[in-house]
Amino acid sequence: MSERATLRGSRLGGTSFEDESGIEFAPRQLVSYDCANGHQFDIPMSSEAEIPFTWECPRCGASSRQRDGSEPESKVDKPVRTHWDMLLERRSISELEDILSERLELLRNGVIGPVHLHRRTGKSKKTA
């Protein structure tokens, strides 16, 4: 019961009862940004952080550019490799055509594939 009494008066999201005396904060720097719509704002960031060149404006949401920064070089992206590209690295077109014809033949004969696609070759026999 005494444990519950110490929590009385505090609530979720309430103010902290601790003070900031004796706490050393991490070194920070203010980074200035200019919005395309004329807004100017500063964002506090860690001294060790990699500073982004663009930041979303807190007033209007437009893309803002760093005031004193230089625009980063655009990176050349590798083209996206599709499943087809990776398949062609392993097989030639003629090999793929051979594999396809083999698989289609197996599917038509009912060796592979869903049961409802199998064709019956003869009349079904009724058992007595």
Key structural traits:
single chain, 128 residues, alpha+beta, Rubrerythrin, domain 2, 4-stranded antiparallel beta sheet, 17% strand, elongated
Walk me through what this model shows:
The chain has a 4-stranded antiparallel sheet, with no helix packed on it. A hairpin with a 4-residue loop joins β1 (28-35) and β2. The protein has helices at residues 2-7, 83-90, 93-108, and strands at 28-35, 40-46, 54-56, 63-66. Among the domains are: 26-69, Single Sheet (Rubrerythrin, domain 2); 83-113. By secondary structure, it is α+β, with helices and mostly antiparallel strands. It has 3 helices and 4 strands; from the N terminus they run αββββαα. The radius of gyration is 34 Å and the shape is elongated. The N and C termini lie far apart (79 Å).
In short:
The protein has 128 residues and is of the alpha+beta class.
* Coarse morphology: elongated
Query: Pairing-aware structural class of the strands and helices?
Result: alpha+beta
Spatial strand arrangement across the major sheet:
2-1-4-3
Order of helices and strands: HEEEEHH
CATH topology of the domain at 26-69: Rubrerythrin, domain 2
How many H/I helices?
A: 3
Rg (CA only): 34 Å
CATH class assignment of the domain at 26-69 = Mainly Beta
Q: Please summarize the sheet with the most strands.
A: 4 strands, antiparallel
The count of strands amounts to: 4
Parts with pLDDT < 50 across at least 5 consecutive residues? none
**CATH superfamily (homologous) name of the domain at 26-69:** RNA polymerase-binding protein A
Mean of the pLDDT scores?
83
Query: What share of the residues lie within helices?
Result: 10-25%
CATH architecture of the domain at 26-69: Single Sheet
Strand content: 15-25%
User: How far apart, in Å, are the first and last alpha carbons?
Assistant: 79 Å
